[in-house]
Amino acid sequence: MCCEAMNKALLELCEKYSVSARGTISFEDGNFVLECNCGKKTILLPWRVERRFFELKKFLTDGTLEDLSTLRFCTVKHGGCLKKQIAKELDLAAFFTGSPVKSVFAVCAGEKGAAANIIAKLENDVNVSIECSTKLPAGNDPIDRHELIAARGVASDQTVDTQTPHASVYVYNDKGESRYTDTDTELFGFSYDEIWTIRAAFAALSDTSLFDVWNDAYATMMRGAEAAIASDEQKKVMFL
Amino acid sequence: MKPLKIAMMSLTHGHTRKYYQTLRDNPKLDWVASCAEDQRAKDVYDLYQTGVPCYLDPEQMFAEHPDIEAVVLASANSKHMEQVRFCAERGIHILSMKIPTFNMEEYDEMIELCDKAGIVCQVELEMHYNPVVLRLKKLLQEGAIGKILASQATNITLSPVWAFPWQGVPEDSFGSRVPLKDGDPRFRGGALCDHPHIFDLIRWLTNSDFDYIYSQVAPNLRKDLQVEDMLLANGKMKDGTAFLFDPSWSRLEERIPVPAPGWEVFPKRMEVNLVITGEKGVLACDCFGPNVYHNGAPNDRYTVQYTYFDEWIGLIDEFVDCCRNGKQPKINLRWHKQTIQAMLGCYESVKSNQPVCINA
Fold it and tell me: What CATH number is given to the structural domain containing B259?
């Protein structure tokens, strides 16, 4: 991902929508970080502005789903840091429900954190399952799934009776198969992950209170992930 | 080979109707009689118009059909012990439902009775005869993703309790009334007791046994049930494979007394899916499909219509082969015992809120 291009797009969004704050996206220690000209700095949590997650959260807040029971998350990627993968999913659980993680129990497998299967409990008694894997071979799009199961209604970012995410466009030609999923006209041409990184930075500059919210959330989600890893090592449920 | 004279008993299990076609179609069988648990079960049985006589008293059925060689015990879990005794006394081979019993003393008695009587007791775990599972096993054996590191598996369905009420009664499903944990009004005997398949499958795929298991119940979707309907389990096999299971009744249903079209509220009423991480890659598997879809009668609701359920063909073929040729079925009482112990381990973990070691 190119920070220069992302910063140019961020500036254009700020100018277009008359957002006075200015900021710079950089990549530090495996995270995208936004530094504001007001002096504030935060690690970006792009999933918190990603449309599909925003819409899933809305199902819980607008009454589309009632009496949530269980969240089932899956994320399968090529490489990367398993702990951060776990942390992100724990943050999504807390973000969706507005309820912090109360306890975690993880079982990890493989060298250098190849995979982890986690069960968490939220303060509001909701169960969360998270399956994480880093063993998807290079060149494959990440596979993930987020399902919310309630006494009234089930919501998911994946179609019923399918195992992998859909793309918007499929091209089959003499070069094989190509897939395209474009989600943002204003940021057309950026990758899916770049789009939500820019959108997260724009959201934080539009509402600078998010800097503190996200810094707190980042610290909490990393504590949760560390507890998950510790629960595997100690074969014990860890309470946060 | 002479067809095996077979009967069905009780007819109250959710899988009862799945045998009707196989018992009629399989040339290796002669389905001679059925015996219903009560008049309600007989009334439901009559709806299917099998043409096979149905009794209400097993003694009468055996008196009228002394040539019965084998029975399908299509009954509530709490009935299995007395029915195994009944069959063992008469030297009748048994096709047991998926949970012989959760009482391990009874379980050992069942093993002893069948050994002494020299009868076959095959446990009905139909996923062993599912073609997708056969492909999955072949791929793993061929090293398609290398050694298995972790597996996630779902065995999620709607709840059958409205059509098969015993599955919501702790004494009938679990065998006794045991609270889930302190301060929880629910009892053992719900979704977990309905879904042993993934606990069995992981043993088959890894060729390993359970090391430890953790389980956690969630708030019920059906507030009026006495038993759990939502839970998760994770843990490790002795070979180090990490697993995560969802054996919930997480798909809502219409509360109809007899399974029929329109049963589903969620479009897909049943799913057994696996995502397996290996040293060399990842494998995702849906054990049922490809399917067809409609939004027509009776509820005009988008619905997944399954295209095949032929697991019972292979299951019955193996059963007949074992009965006729004195073989031991793959899923016999001894093999299945650790699967039951792992499920009991889940309940113990729910109670203690900590992982539990599974000692085979």
Answer: 3.30.360.10
**Residues of B with Cβ-Cβ distance to A163 under 8 angstroms:** 273, 284-286
Residues of A in contact with B302 (CB under 8 A): 160
CA B102 to CA B340: how far, in whole Å?
7
Residue ending a domain, choose from B126, B161, B196: B126
Using a CB-CB distance cutoff of 8 angstroms, which residues of chain B are in contact with residue A72?
A: 246
Residue B191: inside a domain: yes
For residue B24, tell me if it sits in a domain. yes
Interface contacts (A, B; CB < 8 Å):
146
Q: Do A127 and B214 touch (CB under 8 A)?
A: no
CATH number assigned to the domain comprising residue B27 = 3.40.50.720
Picking from A110, A136, A236, the nearest residue to B149 by CB comes out as A110
Candidate ranges A138-142, B172-176, B304-308; pick with highest mean pLDDT: B172-176
Give CA–CA dist B70/B25, Å, rounded: 17
Which letter does DSSP use for residue A57 in this model? H
ipTM of the complex: 0.91
In the DSSP assignment, the letter for residue B2 is: P
B223 part of contact set with chain A, CB < 8 Å: yes
Shared domain for B37 and B139, answered yes or no, is no
Give residue B360's pLDDT.
62
Instruction: Phi first, then psi: give them for residue A6, nearest 5 degrees.
Output: -65, -40
* Selected residue of B151, B212, B216 to mutate for chain A interface (largest A Cβ count, 10 A): B216
Query: Chain B interface, mutation test: which of A67, A69, A234, most B Cβ atoms within 10 Å?
Result: A69
Instruction: Specify the higher pLDDT residue, B208 or B309.
Output: B208
Q: Does a structural domain hold residue B291?
A: yes
Q: Which of residues 290-309 of B touch A (CB under 8 A)?
A: 291, 293, 302, 304
Tell me which chain A residues have a C-beta less than 8 angstroms from the C-beta of B267.
160-161
- Distinct helix (H) and strand (E) counts, chain B: 11, 17
Residue B292 exposed, middle or buried by CB count within 10 Å (0-12, 13-18, 19+): exposed
Indicate the residue among B96, B126, B156 that finishes a domain.
Answer: B126
pLDDT at B34 > cutoff 90: yes
Q: Does A79 touch chain B (CB under 8 A)?
A: no
Average per-residue pLDDT for chain B: 96
How large is the C-alpha radius of gyration of chain B? 20
Is B8 within a domain? yes
Query: Which 8-state DSSP code applies to residue B251?
Result: S
Same domain, B220 and B184: yes
The span from the CA of B8 to the CA of B54, in Å, is 9
Report whether A153 contacts A59 (CB < 8 A): yes
User: Which of A105, A137, A235 is facing B281, going by the closest CB pair?
Assistant: A137
Please state which of the four CATH numbers 3.30.360.10, 3.30.43.10, 3.40.50.2300, 3.30.70.20 is assigned to the domain occupying A3-15+23-183+191-234: 3.30.360.10
Categorize the per-residue pLDDT at B78 as very low, low, confident or very high, splitting at 50, 70 and 90.
very high
Range of the domain at B26: 4-126
Q: Percent of chain B scored above 90 by pLDDT?
A: 92
pLDDT of residue A2: 84
